[in-house]
Amino acid sequence: MFKTVALAILMSFLPAAGHAQDFDPNYLSTYSIVARDPATGELGMAVQSKVFAVGFRTWSAKGGLAVIAHQAASNPFYGKIGLELLEAGLTPRQALDILVRADEGSASRQVAIIDIQGRTASFTGSGASEYKGDRCGADYCAQGNTLGGPEVVNAIARAFENGQGLPLPERMLAALDAGQAAGGDARGMQSSAMMIVKPLAIAGYGDVALDIRTNDHPEPLKEMRRLLKVYRSGERITNANTTFNNGDQAKGLQMMTGLRDELPEKDNIWVALANMYLKMNRKVDAMSALRKAIELNPANKRQLQRNRNFESIHNDPEFLKLVGSLL
């Protein structure tokens, strides 16, 4: 049943109606998307704004239940109580209607909900900064305020709809890219964030499968795409090693060198590449890759001496010179 005490607490914390951007230094002028991947059971949100650390308080979520965006004059109680209402069996529309009716400051809010069944609801208060708007479709809601124009929300929606087949993080990021290309936040760019939740995503317990944030960056979406590549790189290293060790060395090496070319600043990729070269009896290439790994991260001098993948050269004079110490 609906928790009346919780609702009373919510009402006591909500400020009066009005144009919150006129007095709230943390007013979250922004654009975002909440979305679902029915094939994987993932729920997520991606957001960008001309504020510092937009991911700090714009979302609430629970794996297997719902994700809630609360922006403009953001209030996390929309997320806290909203999730409780959804857990009690209300639909996103019913829950959002209750929250808005209970909130004297609702005119300055912008809220969107998507649940694990793909049901959606959105609300944009009349006091949110222009241009403002929202649009919900199959498995998503797109919304924004202080935008360059109405095309921003429409571009986010179209890009997400056209991104079928992409993993949810890449699909949401493509939607934000489209929103930025259409005008984005009218004030510019500063921060972005993306999170994905799924039941038992972490060791059978935690539900946050992905949490990426660029808190202060001149090109936050570009940086978030790089971070997403870094996040994916562990899986790609594993896949490349599996291919290599299963007999297709050429293909495995091609996969690893491709990853190296995309993320040349990551020392662990150079170490993995050196391991492949060594197994192929390409010692010169292996040493060159290890040299680059140490250049990027001097801590590798110690770690490589403990790495069993390189036991065959641990006493090699060239290796010892490279790591700068004896075993």
- Examine the coordinates and then state which fold CATH places here, giving the name of the CATH topology of the largest domain: Glutamine Phosphoribosylpyrophosphate, subunit 1, domain 1
Number of helices: 11
* Largest pleated sheet: 6 strands, antiparallel
User: In percent terms, what proportion of residues is strand?
Assistant: 15-25%
Please name the CATH architecture of the largest domain. 4-Layer Sandwich
SSE pattern, N- to C-terminal = HEEEEHHEEEEHHEEHHHHHH
Give the distance, in angstroms, between the N- and C-terminal Cα atoms.
65 Å
Using the CA coordinates, give the radius of gyration. Answer: 24 Å
Average predicted confidence as pLDDT: 89
Your description of this structure?
By secondary structure, this protein is an alpha+beta fold. The protein has two domains: 4-217, Aminohydrolase, N-terminal nucleophile (Ntn) domain (Glutamine Phosphoribosylpyrophosphate, subunit 1, domain 1, 4-Layer Sandwich), CATH 3.60.20.10; 232-323, Tetratricopeptide repeat domain (Serine Threonine Protein Phosphatase 5, Tetratricopeptide repeat), CATH 1.25.40. Helices cover 42% and strands 21% of the residues. It contains eleven helices and ten strands. It has helices at residues 4-13, 77-87, 92-102, 151-162, 168-181, 220-245, 249-262, 267-279, 283-296, 300-303, 317-323, and strands at 30-37, 42-49, 59-62, 66-72, 109-115, 120-124, 133-137, 140-144, 191-202, 206-214. The strands form two sheets. A six-stranded antiparallel beta sheet has the order 7-8-1-2-9-10, covered by helices on one side. It has a four-stranded antiparallel beta sheet with strand order 3-4-5-6, covered by helices on one side. Strand 9 (191-202) and strand 10 (206-214) form a beta hairpin. Helix 2 crosses helix 3 (92-102), helix 5 runs antiparallel to helix 6 (220-245) and helix 6 (220-245) packs antiparallel against helix 7. The chain is elongated.
